[in-house]
Amino acid sequence: MKVRAIQFSPALGNIEKNMEFHTAKITQAIRDGRELIVFPELSISGYHLKDIASDIALKKDGRQWREFEKLSKKIDIIIGAPLEEDAGIIYNTALYFSKGKWRHTHRKVQLPNYGMFEERMIFKPGDEFRTFKIGTMTTGILICREILFPMLAYLYFIQKTDLLIGISNSPQRGIGKDGISSFQLWENMGYVFSQFYQQNYLFVNRVGFEDGIGFGGGSFFARAGQGICQKAKVVDEDVLDAEIRPADVRRARLSSNYLRDEQPQLVLKELQRILHA
Amino acid sequence: MLKIRCDLVQKILVTSIRDSIHKNGFKNAIIGVSGGLDSAVVLALCRKALGARHTFALLLPYRVSSPASLDHGKMVCAKFKVPYEVIDISPAVDAYFDRFPAENRLQIGNKCARERMSVLYDFSVRKKALVVGTSNKSEILVGYSTQFGDAAAAFLPIGDLYKTQVFELARHLDIPEAIVAKMPSADLWPGQTDEGEIGITYKDLDIILHLMIDRRWDEGEIVERGYPLPLIRRINKMIVNSQFKRTMPPVVKLHARTVGIDFRYLRDWNK
Q1: Chain-wide mean pLDDT for chain B?
Q2: Which of A68, A110, A166, B137 is deepest in the core (most CB within 10 A)?
Q3: In angstroms, what separates the C-alpha of B161 from chain A's closest C-alpha?
Q4: Is A268 an interface residue toward B (CB < 8 Å)?
Q5: What CATH architecture does domain B6-246 belong to?
Q6: What mean pLDDT comes out for the span B152-172?
Q7: What is the domain class of A2-275 according to CATH?
């Protein structure tokens, strides 16, 4: 599958401007023969929403969906959006459109709420990690901080995921002599997901600034069993094209089969013992 | 401990300057160039971000300012081919103090800083430019600045770099050695140095601030590293006592949603 990741800088709270950008990039991707296009977390709205969230959160019956559904007749699309599913209840979501329909919603479960983050003041957390199909590939989505909890990716792993997609709004922080420490976090997780969960993994992070807080980019593709094989630029806008092959998942499992040897029932039994001790 | 990867820091700061200027509908930056290190670094970064045609410097000496400061200011503008004007603020400042005599030299220093701010903001209109601030993290944290004076700006590109890191970045940016080598000074009166006035070298101050703020070490841990407890407490007190300089003036809450309290929007709202 020919995939395109869009690393860009959404305008904060300006849905109209961001919609125009999405439409242009999707149209271009269709022209370029791509089959799936992935935008970062909250790509339609920007990140530090604060009170903007309730001003601009998209409703389930909003007009934007029709535009994405129409475009998805020719390409599969994943975007990030604040979604007001019930009156006054907003989720930080990743939305999948395919073959003219809105087909999957992932609601972010791990909402960071410390330091510069205040997502719990804005969003209600989701409560499930369900897979869906993109073509023949069983796919799961993680949003930003969820990526840093390996047990959440594990939930997709035991659902036999071929493709894991992580969309993010990671602020760059922790400057030192070796660069920005936050960049390394995401690549470390990419290595784990590729090598030990043996999934294809696409990480799509945004760039740009919101009141001085910069987002680092550095989107990448990690092939199942092979680690990171393609990287986008850091700091700057970029487009990353990757070719995702389900056969790589099989090859990775055949060389050292972690999925076959995994014992989720044992994990469940031990979790129950630990939690009820 | 405070070493930085200068090429990456430069890339981030240059990108952020371009972003801040353009996002707000401007093309140009204006910088008050003192002849010191911080403004030289900010000038060089703006030059890289926007080009010489869109970067403008004002040199704003007072009559007791060191002549070397003016020379160094001109030197850095020449080095980066940035156009500048020199405006002597002495007539404006002296006219005020002739009528209302100063009680101490700090009062004159603060008045000079605010006069410079006033001229910079007036020229920002003339040049259709945003005022780019030059404060660094060390001085912001200990409050070594004049509120609504040198601390006033549209944004602060080097505000999260400690002074010792600004030195490192300055060398990377090839700032003239005469500026990098001299003792940092606010040049508020003859012979003044930052370190003399703050009472500690930047090298030690920056390490203590970094451990205290970024790494969240407690004072016991910093003492174990070899710094005296009274010094650590004095620095902590400087931070606490200058918090008013780092915040907007509080608004007294009366309505359901109050500006600065629970009317919560970033400045980049809808940009």
Answers
A1: 96
A2: A166
A3: 9
A4: no
A5: 3-Layer(aba) Sandwich (3.40)
A6: 98
A7: alpha beta
